[in-house]
Amino acid sequence: MTGPELAEAGRLLAAARRPVVFTGAGMSAESGVPTFRDAQTGLWQRYDPQELATPAAFRADPALVWGWYEARRRGVRRARPNPGHRAVAAIAARLPETVVITQNVDDLHERGGVPAPVRLHGSLFAPRCSACARPAPVPPDLPPPADPPVPPGGPEPHGGVESHAPEPPDGPLIPPACAGCGAPVRPGVVWFGEALPETALSAAVEAASACDLLLTVGTSALVHPAAEIPLVAARLGAPVVQVNPVPTPLDAICAVNLRGPAGEVLPALVRAAWPDAG
Ligand code: APR
After folding, report:
1. What angle do CA 62, 65, 68 make, to 5 degrees?
2. Which end of the chain is flanked by fewer CB atoms within 10 Å, N or C?
3. Residue nearest to atom 4 of ligand 1 (CA)
4. CA of 276 to the centre of ligand 1 (A)
5. Which among 266, 277, 267, 221 has a CA at the least distance from the CA of 243?
6. Cα separation, 39 vs 56, whole angstroms
C-alpha cells in the first residue's frame, strides 16, 4: 500500500505520543481466525450466535456451547500472529504510552508482542465457574501455541496463514466442574446480553479520552458499547485512522480510511511513520 492516505496516516502516527490501537476480528483474519460477520466466512454466517454465545444458550445446552468454544480455542492455538499483530507491537515498542484495546478473545496480540491489551470481550483462555466465577484452568490437552512468543521487533517468523476455521464442534463436550462449587465451568468471554468487564471498559474509555490518535483496525463497529470507543476519541478531537478493506459506520469520523488487510496495511503504516523502522 502507498499513496497520500498512507503518507497522511504515517504523519499522524509519527506525531502521536499517546495512541490507542482498537482492534476487532479483522485483525486476526489473516491468521486464519474467522471474523464474525464477514459474508460466508464469518462465524455468525454458519452458527446462530443466539444458540452459542448467550447465557441462555449455555444454560440450555452447556455441552454444545463448551464444545464450540473448545474448537475455537484449538483453532487459535494452531494460528500464528500475522504481520499486523507484529506491527501493533512495534508501535507499542516505539511509543510506550500506546494502549491496545481489543474486542478479540484470541491471544494473538500477546503472542505478537503486546503483553497486556485491554480486553473488552474477555478471552478464550480464561475459563471460570458459571456460578461462583472462580477461575478455572485451561483444559490441559490443548495443543501448544503454533509459534514461540517473539519480543517486539524480534525476527519475523514466516506468516502462518493456516486456514483453520473451527470445524463444527466434534460433538458436545461436557464442561469441567468448578473445583470450588462443582458448577459447570464456562468460557471467559462476554456473551450477548452480558455487561462488559467494568475495569476493561473504564480503562478503554480513559485511554480513548486521553489519546492523540486512535487507530481502529478490523472492526465492523456494529457491537456496542465497544463500538463507542473510536467515537469517544473523535468527540475529544483526536484524529481517527481506520484500517479495513471495506467501509464501516466509522468512515465519516475518520481523518484517514486505509482500505486493505491489516497484515499488509499496518506494516506499511509503521514504515510510513518511521522509515528507519526497516
Ligand atoms: N484486515 C482488516 N480488516 C478486516 C480483514 C483484514 N484482513 N478481514 C476482514 N476485515 C474487517 C471486515 O470488513 C469487518 O468490517 O473486519 C471486520 C470484522 O467485523 P466483525 O466480524 O463484525 O467483527 P468485530 O467488529 O470484531 O465484532 C465485534 O461482535 O460478535 C461479536 O463479540 C464479538 O467481538 C465481537 C464483536
Report:
1. 145
2. C
3. 26
4. 31
5. 266
6. 26
Annotated catalytic residue: which of 109, 121, 158, 224?
121
> In this predicted structure, what is the pLDDT of residue 154?
46
Which cell numbers in the block locate residue 217? 483496525
Q: How confident is the model at residue 118 (pLDDT cuts 50, 70, 90)?
A: very high
Tell me the residue type at 252.
A
Give which of 39, 83, 22 is closest to 218, Cα–Cα: 22
* Closest ligand 1 atom to Cα of 221: 25
Q: Which pTM does this prediction carry? A: 0.91
Q: What is the mean pLDDT of residues 24-29?
A: 97
Cell 478479540 sits on residue:
104
C-alpha cell at 32: 486464519
Considering only CA atoms, which residue is closest to atom 10 of ligand 1? 26
164 noted as active-site residue: no
